Amino acid sequence: MKKQKAQNSYTKIISITSGKGGVGKTNIVCNLACCFASMGKKVMIMDADLSLGNVSVILGIIPKYNISQVIYGDKQLKDIIISDSNGVLVLPASAGIPELSNLSEPQKIALMSRFDEFAGDMEGLGEPIDILLIDTGAGISSNVLYFNLAASEIYVVVTPEPTSITDAYALIKVLSLKYGEKYFRIIINNVKSEREAKEVYKHLSLVSDKFLKVTLNYLGHVLNDKNIPRSVIMQKPALSLFPDSKSSECIKKLAYNILSQKDNKISNGNIQFFLNKLLRAF
After folding, report:
1. Does the pLDDT value for residue 2 go beyond 50?
2. Segment holding 115, helix H or strand E
3. Share in percent of the chain as helix, strand, coil (round to 5)
């Protein structure tokens, strides 16, 4: 007999985002998903970089369908879900469809209606989803803001590069001043040491404390590791290929930290909550 997900059961809904592209955000998403799956969690990634998604590339899977068919009404969400070798479920994005980089109002309505159908058919996935990771695009486009506002937790990925720090601050500023977001968790990527990571976080935190009324929490860091680009070429998460590497150890610590976090927006969540947040985002 299939387990059915109770309507009030808990799904951790996390957006992982960045102000600047090329900071390793998607790599962190895929490796965290792999780690959560190894811990016995049911995990789904939504590739929310709708026009230039790379989650399927990092995981080495080839989707038959993608989110564009859902938005255009040809498929339902359950029709496009695929799974990688670790059991991670993926809602794949399209590639090279520029009109999806900023969803129109009719497209948002179409997507939300498909999510509504999906929320009513959760038992079709078997075990309940414990964690939904939303891999947003980079920057401050309407799509990026849209999916961040729908999540119950917002994680911002930053590297030591000045442009990354500046753009991360810009993203936090827009979400805070324009949309009232007050809580952000920070992941520092591609650093030489924990000390360097803490310095980057301190710099971002000081500027935010001075000009914005927000709370930034340091969630963890991922060390620079030659195995990361190797794993990208091999199209498998580094955690699967190099489980004892320094970056993989960082990912494991991040995963445990994430599971210990309490949501700031709500005391519990589910896919229907995510739908409702999408409805109210703009």
Report:
1. no
2. helix 105-119
3. 45, 20, 35
